[in-house]
UniProtKB/TrEMBL annotation:
It comes from the Bacteria. Keywords: Lyase, Porphyrin biosynthesis. Pfam families: HEM4. GO terms for molecular function: uroporphyrinogen-III synthase activity. It catalyses: hydroxymethylbilane = uroporphyrinogen III + H2O. This is Uroporphyrinogen-III synthase. InterPro entries: 4pyrrol_syn_uPrphyn_synt_sf, 4pyrrol_synth_uPrphyn_synth, UROS/Hem4. Its EC number is 4.2.1.75. The keyword Isomerase does not apply. Catalyzes cyclization of the linear tetrapyrrole, hydroxymethylbilane, to the macrocyclic uroporphyrinogen III. GO terms for biological process: protoporphyrinogen IX biosynthetic process; uroporphyrinogen III biosynthetic process.
Length: 140
């Protein structure tokens, strides 16, 4: 018997390698592929339009990867004066490792509701929010 890993991209391949190393026969057969969205080219402009202290939400590792690559390809850096948020610790760690930016996430409830319960969400007056998500991803 073999395990069929359907996760897309390198994360699926990594999981298969880990399973194989543990003695579990695993095959990588992704059911879908994740590709850059059409609006990704607008990201540098959108980031430049934000005011210092505004909020940027990154909802997945894939969103982090595509956004980071887009910015690095044109020599654009993540702004240190913005506040970055993720839904969970894995995406937060992934973003922080790639960008060296501080990122906030809910410790106890790694979901949208957890993000909305963060202290920073109590006062959103005059804040602009930018959500980096996949096509059809959940909005706040």
């Amino acid at each position: 018997m073999a395990v069929l890993v359907t996760r897309p991209d390198e994360r699926g391949k990594t999981l298969v390698d880990q399973l194989n190393q543990a003695g579990v026969v695993a095959l990588h057969l992704p059911l879908l592929s994740i590709e850059a969205g059409a609006e990704l080219a607008q990201l540098p402009t959108k980031l430049n339009q934000l005011k210092s202290g505004d909020y940027v939400f990154l909802v997945s590792k894939s969103a982090v990867d595509f956004a980071d690559k887009t910015l690095k390809d044109i020599g654009f850096s993540w702004r240190q004066d913005l506040q970055y948020f993720t839904v969970g610790h894995r995406t937060a760690q992934h973003f922080s490792c790639q960008t060296e930016c501080t990122v906030r996430y809910p410790i106890t409830s790694e979901n949208t509701e957890g993000v909305l319960n963060l202290p920073q969400m109590a006062e959103l007056t005059d804040k602009n929010l930018l959500i980096l998500r996949g096509n059809g991803g959940r909005e706040l």
